[in-house]
């Protein structure tokens, strides 16, 4: 039997596409002691968290709450609860997380239709409308910002489009919420799901989600589980939600005043989620969007000055993650290893068609800060120089300073 | 916009059936800062956690790891990954969590067969064998200790029985692991899933699970998802695992040396899980089982001395939770409210057929301690007295003292 020492992570500045360094206030909140699941203080706190995330999502949706799992659990809870086997769903894919949405929909038994565009690009409203006309889906499921490509699909107008074509609009805003403009009600979004580990500055493991009354109605109509199960012999006629853990109808009941027992709430993650929202709202949503925009632009200016060509359609780039082409002759993994091992700074690799070609550098949540940006640029310049890629001395840092100077 | 103050839970001694007061060391470990998902330190730590839980589960199973969700996520991950639609599963139900297993199996599309016994009782080996012969299931899915009834199904011999009848043995040991004898390999258990919030002394939100090579083989054989999806037109011929988030085949890959990306690990919950296992192994499994047994017996002696009749088959009672009948003429909810509001001590109510009839008092994890037992008994005597139920002054505490004296 070998028993290791108490946990002692190495110091890291996490400047990848997420998870990022957690705000210390969030970690402190998570060290608060537990209370019972139905303690009046606990149920009050659950209600308070609903209110906080209504503000974060800019929505009046009653059903704004947490799914106890990572952002992926939130995505699956939404889709498996909305979609019955055979239901048509349209998934526009412009990066890795679009593929994930499609896969989750397939697992739920849906009739999945996809349209695809090149990584780094987004869809025009016309392309989306044409697909909606063609597919006539029950749900349009789209990623907002896809960190795999560093670009965000514009969402304004999409809700109206969906309304017109009788579809519900689901948005995965894991990577954007809190750091990019996101307006649930104003944009006509029916369901949105997120996570803490990006712009919200917390650890992965809790998924804030919101459901419009229209989406709730669709989900609640599937609630007669027992009937569904009894009809199982004729599987086309009635489909109970395929998951118990991710059954939003039951999770709504658990968070409702009825407090019907479901899972045992992950209280420490709830404390963390609460603190993430609290910190964000204390700063102000518009202020946080502007902060992410500023530090994202500083990172873009700095990396450009270092001679790194930006990746993707800049007009649609996310505020919180910059993609840059790995220069010819430079080994991307070696540079990342030196950044991590010698400077304690993590930057991100890429997946799929971008693997080995693009680095992704995040400036989000707690790490959307001047010192984090400047440290990263200084280290990157030094490491790139040793890897044979030269820029004018101090070029990256100077460009960021210039941008900050202009911005102030 | 209203923004509440930082989190400030009221002080509580959680003596219900779980969640219980977390060990402060676990909460401290959870305040450690994050590192990146593929940081060598992080992947080393994931491997370390696998090793720790192999010791906790007393198993050589390579696939011993965490599911990122509450104990219920672990249950569903196991069952939805093992069971294809139409597969026969046998679920012996002796309390609420047996019903949960059956429901989760139904949602997975399985052909669910149940046998039931009265709450408070367990099944004989003969009854289980007869059902195995009758149903010929692919999986026997059974709860070890069902907190809803405070009794535990004996598991020794069950593995051999399943082997003989060609079934896999799945056990939900959420409420027992760490505080009751549990031997995965020796008892021939193929799959077991648990949670942190009972005898492991942590918060809900991470599910330690273990899978035998035989179970892994069954799950891996379902892995050709794409084939399954292509064959979806003929849904009987090929069934990909119905969940992405809870797909154990993908989660195995994520925890393997291949590190295939799945969800973003809930790092803070991983730190907590690691500390729970570390504390338990530092104490020693046999020592922890004995400690739970001792304090459970003290609580039983104390409540009996207070004139509270124990509930359920005492020969099969769990070490870590005592069920007692609410005395005639006493309002159970009022007593629980006074315990909570006036003494800060939570004891549990009951569900289903026991609702309003039985209290459940836990002594587990961090709260399997002399002071926690004595405080609870002293408070309970005082509150019961005010509710009109009288016992000899100090009877509960004295009985516990006597038991501790004998036990030393």
From TrEMBL, chains A, B:
InterPro entries: Aminotrans_V_dom, PyrdxlP-dep_Trfase, PyrdxlP-dep_Trfase_major, PyrdxlP-dep_Trfase_small, SP_NH2Trfase/AEP_transaminase. It comes from the Bacteria. The modification N6-(pyridoxal phosphate)lysine is found at residue 198. GO terms for molecular function: alanine-glyoxylate transaminase activity; L-serine-pyruvate transaminase activity. Its cofactor is pyridoxal 5'-phosphate. One of its GO terms (biological process) is glycine biosynthetic process, by transamination of glyoxylate. Keywords: Aminotransferase, Pyridoxal phosphate, Transferase. PANTHER family: ALANINE--GLYOXYLATE AMINOTRANSFERASE, AMINOTRANSFERASE CLASS V. Belongs to the class-V pyridoxal-phosphate-dependent aminotransferase family. This is Aminotransferase V.
């Amino acid at each position: 039997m070998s028993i290791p020492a108490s946990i002692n992570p190495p110091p890291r500045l996490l400047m990848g596409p997420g998870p990022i360094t957690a705000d210390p206030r969030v970690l402190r909140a998570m060290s608060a002691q537990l209370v019972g699941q139905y303690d009046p203080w606990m149920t009050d706190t659950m209600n308070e968290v609903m209110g906080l995330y209504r503000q974060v999502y800019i929505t009046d949706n009653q059903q704004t709450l947490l799914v106890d799992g990572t952002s992926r659990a939130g995505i699956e809870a939404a889709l498996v609860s909305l979609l019955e086997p055979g239901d048509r769903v349209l998934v526009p894919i412009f990066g890795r997380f679009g593929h994930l949405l499609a896969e989750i929909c397939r697992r739920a038994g849906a009739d999945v239709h996809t349209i695809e565009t090149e990584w780094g690009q987004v869809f025009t409203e016309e392309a989306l409308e044409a697909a909606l006309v063609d597919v006539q889906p029950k749900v349009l499921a789209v990623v907002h910002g896809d960190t795999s490509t560093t670009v965000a699909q514009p969402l304004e107008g999409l809700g109206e489009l969906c309304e017109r074509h009788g579809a519900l609009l689901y948005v995965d805003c894991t990577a954007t919420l809190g750091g990019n403009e996101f307006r649930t009600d104003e944009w006509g979004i029916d369901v949105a799901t997120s996570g803490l580990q990006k712009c919200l500055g917390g650890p992965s493991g809790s998924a804030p989600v919101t459901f419009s009354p229209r989406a709730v109605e669709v989900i609640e109509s599937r609630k007669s589980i027992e009937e569904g199960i009894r009809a199982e012999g004729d599987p086309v006629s009635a489909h109970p939600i395929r998951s118990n853990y991710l059954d939003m109808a039951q999770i709504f009941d658990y968070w409702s005043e009825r407090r019907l027992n479901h899972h045992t709430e992950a209280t420490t993650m709830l404390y963390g989620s609460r603190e993430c929202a609290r910190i964000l709202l204390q700063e102000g949503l518009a202020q946080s969007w502007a902060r992410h925009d500023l530090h994202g632009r500083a990172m873009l200016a700095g990396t450009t000055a270092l001679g790194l060509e930006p990746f993707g359609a800049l007009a649609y780039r996310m505020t919180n993650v910059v993609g840059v082409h790995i220069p010819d002759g430079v080994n991307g993994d070696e540079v990342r290893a030196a950044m991590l091992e010698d400077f304690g700074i993590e930057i991100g690799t890429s997946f799929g068609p971008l693997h080995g070609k693009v680095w992704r550098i995040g400036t989000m949540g707690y790490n959307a800060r001047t010192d984090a940006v400047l440290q990263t640029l200084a280290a990157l310049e030094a490491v790139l120089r040793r890897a044979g890629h030269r820029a004018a001395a101090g070029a990256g840092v100077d460009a960021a300073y210039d941008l900050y100077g202009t911005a102030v």
